[in-house]
């Protein structure tokens, strides 16, 4: 099992929205960065745990946990001309973009803010707190996963 951090803008899709989804999970679509796409395609697997991170909002930080319930498949929105994620260079025979399905596991009582994460010495080498660590899908080391889970209710 691997650990991940998936970023989302809560006005688009939040941990509360994910909590309303059934066991089949929600399609985590719209990833349009090649490195993030490669993580989804090559590394993210069923059973992996995911921190859901709210970004581009008033309360930026980790909001809860999800689990991957369906591994890599072509992002269906890349083929829809009506979608903001449409990619005219992508075809069903040669899709460029990947999605996974995730299901809700847990919402934290309070969002763990980025400022707090940056102050934790045990997270000093975590991708998220590094300068330029803005990738929408990023791996989380087990030691970082455990450290963050240790403070989720504190």
Can you give a write-up of this model?
- The protein has 154 residues and is an alpha+beta fold.
- It is built from 4 helices and 6 strands; from the N terminus they run βαβαβββαβα.
- The chain is globular, with a radius of gyration of 15 Å.
- The chain has helices at residues 15-19, 34-42, 114-119, 142-151, and strands at 3-8, 26-28, 49-54, 61-74, 98-113, 137-140.
- 19% of the residues lie in helices and 32% in strands.
Give the key terms.
single chain; alpha+beta; six-stranded mixed β-sheet; 4 helices; 19% helix; 32% strand; globular
Number of helices: 4
Q: How many angstroms separate the termini? A: 26 Å
- Report the count of strand segments: 6
- Average pLDDT figure: 95
- Spatially, the strands of the biggest sheet line up as 2-5-4-3-1-6
Shape: globular
The radius of gyration over CA amounts to 15 Å
Order of helices and strands: EHEHEEEHEH
Sheet of most strands = 6 strands, mixed
Structural classification = alpha+beta
Pick out the low-confidence regions: none
Strand content: 25-35%
